């Protein structure tokens, strides 16, 4: 299938977005660490001292720039094309974490990065063309289909269960809780971002869409979802290793977003079976790369054989607090104990 001009614009913007967003993970985490050291209260346990930390705001500005590029990309290309390219932000964050946060990237992690790139290329080559939309009301009709309304209802129920039942109990020991909330809300925010971006694009083309209440409704959904994502992403980044959060968040977010897009925008309706299978295979390659990055996280830093003998699961449990934290007050050059504790639990 030919690569249209709109798809090319969306592709270029998605690449730019990935670079900025990947860097923002690292800058924000350094800001979170600095704020926690100054206040003694980490964001993962309810602290908000990072709001006074300039470095964290630098990371937030970087993320906003990346999200704006991503926002515009959705106005030109389908979510099935734009969203998987977020894998490139994982590669950026993994390499920057290796050099700036000393979260070592293993050789197999590098292979995972290569797999992410290869899978992304396959997806780009076989991506569907963006369908012409003439008004925000047309998008509203798509959003109010029974199938998509059922998806939205399922997401809302799952988010409430995760926030009010699982997060207080397991949020600081299971990385899937915080990232799951971010991913579920993210899939809805992407659909609304695409709707809002298309409305703005049509407005600049001379077809004013700001007079329709549907445009403002989509904007409200975007704000609600983004604020929720930001809050729980901060908790995830402050509680777990960046090299863990980034790939898992990507896998969950991308899977749910593609599912939402296929349901709402019918991205695969006009494609042949071969192209759909190729996209799925490319996506599986990307997922495999991100999982490889996850399982080859910084073992040398969390389990240095010369200084730290292996801990049994029972000893690891005793050394950890109820919320999965370890004893603190360790020198900067020592491995962060809370990360050691969390990783020990994951290994067993």
Helix segment tally = 14
Biggest pleated-sheet summary: none
Structural class: mainly alpha
Percent range for β-strand residues: under 5%
Task: Give, in order, the helices and strands.
Answer: HHHHHHHHHHHHHH
Spatial gap, N to C terminus: 46 Å
Could you tell me the number of beta strands?
Answer: 0
- Mean pLDDT across the residues is 80
Residue windows where pLDDT falls under 50 for at least 5 positions: 303-335, 337-348
Instruction: Evaluate the radius of gyration.
Output: 21 Å
Number of domains: 2
Overall geometry: globular
Helix proportion of residues, in percent? over 70%
GO cellular component, one term: plasma membrane
Keywords: Cell membrane, Endosome, Ion transport, Magnesium, Membrane, Transmembrane, Transmembrane helix, Transport
Family: Belongs to the NIPA (TC 2.A.7) family.
Subunit structure: Homodimer.
Give your account of this protein's structure:
Belongs to the NIPA (TC 2.A.7) family. The longest helix has 35 residues, at 5-39. By secondary structure, this protein is mainly alpha-helical. The chain contains 14 helices and no strands. It has helices at residues 5-39, 54-76, 79-82, 87-100, 107-125, 136-143, 146-170, 175-204, 213-239, 242-265, 273-295, 299-302, 313-319, 337-347. Helix 2 (54-76) crosses helix 8, helix 7 runs antiparallel to helix 8 (175-204) and helix 8 crosses helix 10. It has 2 domains: 5-297, no CATH class; 303-348, no CATH class.
